[in-house]
Amino acid sequence: MIIVMDIKSSKPQVDLVIEKLETSGFQAHLILGVKRIVIGAVGDRAAIYSLGLEGMPGVIGVVPIMHPYKLVSKEAAGGTSIVKVGDTEIGGSKVVLIAGPCAVESETQIYQAAEAVKKQGAKILRGGTFKPRTSPYSFQGMEEEGLKIMQAAAKEYGLATVTEVVDLPSLDTALEYVDMVQIGARNMQNFRLLQAVGKAKRPVLLKRGLSATIEEWLMAAEYIASEGNASVILCERGIRTFETATRNTLDISAIPLVKSLSHLPVLVDPSHATGIRALVAPMSLAAVAAGADGLLIEVHPEPAKALCDGPQSLSPDEFEKLVQELIPIVAAVKKTL
Amino acid sequence: MIIVMDIKSSKPQVDLVIEKLETSGFQAHLILGVKRIVIGAVGDRAAIYSLGLEGMPGVIGVVPIMHPYKLVSKEAAGGTSIVKVGDTEIGGSKVVLIAGPCAVESETQIYQAAEAVKKQGAKILRGGTFKPRTSPYSFQGMEEEGLKIMQAAAKEYGLATVTEVVDLPSLDTALEYVDMVQIGARNMQNFRLLQAVGKAKRPVLLKRGLSATIEEWLMAAEYIASEGNASVILCERGIRTFETATRNTLDISAIPLVKSLSHLPVLVDPSHATGIRALVAPMSLAAVAAGADGLLIEVHPEPAKALCDGPQSLSPDEFEKLVQELIPIVAAVKKTL
Amino acid sequence: MIIVMDIKSSKPQVDLVIEKLETSGFQAHLILGVKRIVIGAVGDRAAIYSLGLEGMPGVIGVVPIMHPYKLVSKEAAGGTSIVKVGDTEIGGSKVVLIAGPCAVESETQIYQAAEAVKKQGAKILRGGTFKPRTSPYSFQGMEEEGLKIMQAAAKEYGLATVTEVVDLPSLDTALEYVDMVQIGARNMQNFRLLQAVGKAKRPVLLKRGLSATIEEWLMAAEYIASEGNASVILCERGIRTFETATRNTLDISAIPLVKSLSHLPVLVDPSHATGIRALVAPMSLAAVAAGADGLLIEVHPEPAKALCDGPQSLSPDEFEKLVQELIPIVAAVKKTL
Amino acid sequence: MIIVMDIKSSKPQVDLVIEKLETSGFQAHLILGVKRIVIGAVGDRAAIYSLGLEGMPGVIGVVPIMHPYKLVSKEAAGGTSIVKVGDTEIGGSKVVLIAGPCAVESETQIYQAAEAVKKQGAKILRGGTFKPRTSPYSFQGMEEEGLKIMQAAAKEYGLATVTEVVDLPSLDTALEYVDMVQIGARNMQNFRLLQAVGKAKRPVLLKRGLSATIEEWLMAAEYIASEGNASVILCERGIRTFETATRNTLDISAIPLVKSLSHLPVLVDPSHATGIRALVAPMSLAAVAAGADGLLIEVHPEPAKALCDGPQSLSPDEFEKLVQELIPIVAAVKKTL
Fold first, then answer.
1. Which residues contact B155 (CB under 8 A, 6 or more apart)?
2. Chain C interface, mutation test: which of A32, A35, A241, most C Cβ atoms within 10 Å?
3. A171: which of A77, C143, C179, D209 is 20 to 30 A away, CA to CA?
4. How far apart are CA B141 and CA C120, in angstroms?
5. Under an 8 A CB cutoff, do C257 and B251 touch?
6. B244 interface with A at CB cutoff 8 Å
7. Mean pLDDT of A67-83
8. How far is the alpha carbon of A14 from chain D, nearest alpha carbon, in Å?
């Protein structure tokens, strides 16, 4: 940690900062520059947060040198983690496909979806049952009824399941039915929900927030891990930028970057990121080429009739075509489907 | 609503869209362009969401002509709303000051803060008791204990109160102690929480999300209003941009823009937006000049000792100076403090 | 300057960095942290750019402590600069109005515009003659013919003039006719053009680039100053963000921030920033309240017939109304028009 | 084109808009909505720009239905274009590698670089000779001297060449030495320079601007094409977002999106986009998997000594490793190197 002070700071002001650091267990190294005074602090970054140095007289800024996360950092695990969802391992040498509709809409729909995605090798069935919608007038999900039929469909076809949870009651309900819970982009900094899934001891699919930096995303994972749940899978799903031609901008570079910073597996959701059906396949290939551990893809038996996200959902035929294109890419990066 | 279709769409495809519109109560107007087919749909925009037009064959896009919010729109009220918090009216000819520390830290601190802000004419005391922090290792707030001492301090000095709520339990607790609840930027699309405060019949201070468009912000207000609570006050607090010299970019243009679209009052929080003490005063003046109905300002008896947001908190003296500068600006826009 | 190195760096790698610093005239201070090695370098930041430290083995990053600009920094002038354009001083106790049409379109139009803006107290006439347009099929400006009639109109009404230049030939032409040249947002990092206006010894209005950080903007000013031209006036005109309700997001906080970093005057262009006529007046008031030294406003005798930027241009009557609203705000910040 | 008008617009106001459209050769279709009046205009989008409809009384907005570019649109070519640079075809079934140092620094350096990249199958040598640098105090390039030695080195190893041009004089000089000229990100909307390269009849590598939308990027290409030069190659190089962990955010989704909108080839520059050496390889694989026609990669014989962009430059060994990883990906998308 580097504390930068104004060159005009008085000696008592500088001494006060050094004293605060040293009484808190840091070693302080004073560097008198030409236009700035710099204090290097050696110690635990997390501890420095409670010191309030940034508000002290003379202090211009505090520059972090270390990352603020610990449990989810690469160093913590000394390598890469594998998270197990049902019988499926995520984070190893297999590229895992999670697929299914944006929302569970009916028994027929979810059974057809489960059959279609299973046929192409997907291991986990996705389906929204508690839907966070921008408009209060949009379809809000089938809730527990949806979970029941999704569970049955998944069982029928030998798939594990994931659904998004949006608050404590929906989490409690979901835990009775699904193998993994998902924290959506809009709740990535809903810290109470993060703490609750941290206590739940069930794998968590943590989507990156729309405007979350990679550091904030890993800090959200740290919230979950700090409650004792290390089974966190990160999912890049596009960030909000000025570009309006796609719904969001899929940050493919986040895949190798996060994998160099953290031991957690990284998935990619090309459907939500782009919002455009024709881009789902090329972005899937790109994600796997860049090192993604798996994909989260919206597949609907009849996209034209979907209650949400129709424009980006693949039909079963389109999903089959995507998987065919994916196979040689998976082989090229020395993995298997 | 304008539905844009590919010029190569077949007649049955076009007919299907028109039929879907007409059976749902819309009038459809077909325009055959040179390179696109366009269908103008006259009817209720909210209803169109459930039609799934964007997923239909041939459809390139659906262009909204109307805003998607109703209850919070300017037209709904035929003018401007006044929201009453305790005895204080927000949205009228007075510029309302809400001030206090980022977090309630101790009895001494909150009483000193209450005294200081009251002295300068603030009407409402702010103080965080449930803190959403980026790091799980940061101070998380005094919770109910903090609410109790804030309530007592406010009573002592004749102030109303506001605190942030972060989930259903904290909302239940807060409702016992405060005059207004705040939805923070990170929870602006926590739709369950929005619905809960919508049912609570207590004024709500709704901060704009870090990366929320103005339309999304008004849709969040619509969530609250659609549950029957029309006492919503909007608060602009800076948006996330590429600029790193300030914590966020305060979108001052949102004030007049939102006031032209909605009847709700608009406040500004210059402290969180900039993260820099020296910018709080000029941004306060700018906000009032642009039409803000009030300000939300962080004031701490001793900013150098603040447990959070020290760098942007004003001391009582700095707050006094700000109010002195504000007085002629308030008069210039024909309002009073 | 702080050089951050991997804790696993070898001693020779660390020594190499220290040696490179010391042979280049820096003092190097080594701090062995728990998880990082940090080297504090005391010396001239500009010089460090040529060392290529970031590419050296073991180096994780180079963290600047000082700003990279010198001539335009606040310290360089020991205060605030005043730039004189014709007889008008910008940067002192007067708020200067620069107004006129987006583009010079005809003799009648520019004379009417000049008369209208002069009547309301504007000191400088603006008018585009070399137009950088997104589409090659849009009106590209009247070029020298436009400059001639703008010069004549300005002379008739006792106004100084400013026009945008887009390359070396247009600069040469403009220098024959106008009192100040403008570098537009799209050319803010056209470094050859910056060097050319730096050699031209004519006041320069330097607009902030659409996506330029404040540091990059000041570095663009440094380019001009480093060629010997210190008469630079900065102009904030909105930055590109995710928000699409306004054309750009006017960064009002940039005004006090830049004035704390640099001695140069700062103007604001609310017309281009918002792209919406109804927002021009409130943003003008906000800008002056936040400390702007003046405003750049699009005024057209008949906005409905404007060849460019009609939606944001004010009519003479609207401009008069704006000035009436501005008068008490200017007085409130203890300045005069 | 859709013109949206206020429901309170008077009949003469509506008639005026319709009249303006019809006298300009458009068919106008009036739709009276519940809360808006909408006019569908059938005709040439480019022509509508000169009408100034957005400034007319009652008009709320003009919504484009068609793209504003023509010559570079997919429809214009009825397929995909191949651009020939020297003997190398770009846009066909081969993935083309363009590689070399950020800047030409010396004869030894550029010969070593040329040898290294040729060995791995690169077809075109890149090297900056006119450098647009953020700081006026940074190395600005070897200019014509650099072009001479780059041309000689390229000839020695049988490579074509590309260099960036920054103004008209540098273009004139570069045309004597290189096979392709590059327009950098900062000059993407330097319209005079675009027009000049449009007249030059030499292939142009057009980088996407830091904050350019895809539409603006294609409009920049349209500027070049409209002057008669159809040999334009687009190059995605990262856009500016809020994320600071990478220098820019590489927009991989732009590759398939642009290829669906335009017939022009699309390359990717992973070096500038990320600014991080370790991300160059995974982003290269991702780009090719997503359909890129080639890559632009910074390779330096000794990155630790590079005068610019050392942190992102690959050594010859790292470049060799990248190419080895690339080979199976290229095969997977049914192309060849």
1. none
2. A35
3. A77
4. 54
5. no
6. no
7. 89
8. 30
Cα first-last separation, chain D: 43
CB pairs under 8 A between A and D: 120
Cα distance between residue C244 and residue A242, in whole Å: 8
pLDDT above 70: percentage of residues in chain B: 98
Q: What is the pLDDT of residue C49?
A: 59
- Scan for tokens 């040498």, then name that residue: A93
Q: How far apart are CA A246 and CA D251, in angstroms?
A: 10
- Give the predicted TM-score (pTM) of the model: 0.92
Task: Output the pLDDT for position B289.
Answer: 98
Tens of pLDDT, residue by residue over B20-57, are 888 878 888 888 877 788 888 877 666 665 677 877 88
Average pLDDT on C55-79 reads: 83
Question: Does C273 touch chain D if contact means CB atoms closer than 8 Å?
Answer: no
Portion 55-94 of B in contact with A at CB < 8 A? 55-57, 68
Tell me the per-residue pLDDT of C84-104, one tens digit each, with 9 for 90 and over. Answer: 999 999 999 999 999 999 999
For the purposes of burial, counting CB atoms within 10 Å of the CB of D44, is it exposed (0-12), middle (13-18) or buried (19 or more)?
middle
The complex scores an ipTM of 0.91
Average pLDDT of the residues of chain C: 92
Task: Return d(Cα D332, Cα D330) in angstroms, integer.
Answer: 5
pLDDT at B45: 65
**Is A38 an interface residue toward C (CB < 8 Å)?**
yes
d(CA C135, nearest CA chain B) in Å = 20
The answer to whether D190 faces chain C, any CB pair under 8 Å, is: yes
Q: What is the pLDDT of residue A50?
A: 64
Q: Are D256 and A283 inside 8 Å of each other by CB?
A: yes
- Spatial distance between the Cα atoms of D162 and A170, rounded to a whole number of angstroms: 58
Confidence band, pLDDT 50/70/90 cuts, at residue C335:
very high
Taken in order of first residue, the domains within chain C and their CATH numbers are 2-64 (3.30.70.1140), 83-332 (3.20.20.70)
D47–B contact, CB cutoff 8 A: no
User: Chains near D, with 3+ CB pairs < 8 A?
Assistant: A, B, C
Q: In Å, what is the CA distance from D175 to each residue of A150, A179, D113, D153, D206?
A: 64, 63, 22, 17, 16
Question: Phi first, then psi: what are they for A21, rounded to 5°?
Answer: -65, -50
B212, two tokens: 């929320």
pLDDT value of residue D99 = 98
Cα–Cα distance measured from residue D208 to residue D273, given in angstroms and rounded to the nearest whole number: 11
pLDDT of C54: 78
How far is B152 from C45, CA to CA, in rounded Å?
53
Averaged confidence pLDDT in chain A: 92
Mean pLDDT of B79-93: 95
Q: What is the dihedral of CA B216, B265, D4, C133, to 10 degrees?
A: -80
- C247: helix, coil or strand? coil
B98 Cβ under 8 Å from any chain C Cβ: no
Tokens encoding B51: 């039609």
The answer to whether the CB atoms of C256 and B278 lie below 8 A apart is yes
- Residues of B in Cβ contact (< 8 Å) with C243: 213-214, 239, 251
Is B264:B234 a contact under the CB 8 Å cutoff? yes
- All residues of chain D having their beta carbon less than 8 Å from the beta carbon of residue C211 are 210-211, 240
pLDDT-derived band of residue C50, with 50, 70 and 90 as boundaries? low
Mean pLDDT of chain B: 92
Q: How far is C273 from chain B (nearest CA, A)?
A: 9
Give D20-78 pLDDT, tens digit per residue. Answer: 888 878 888 888 877 788 888 877 666 665 677 877 888 887 877 778 888 999 988 88
Distance CA A260, CA A275 (A): 28
Distance from CA of B18 to the nearest CA of D (A): 15
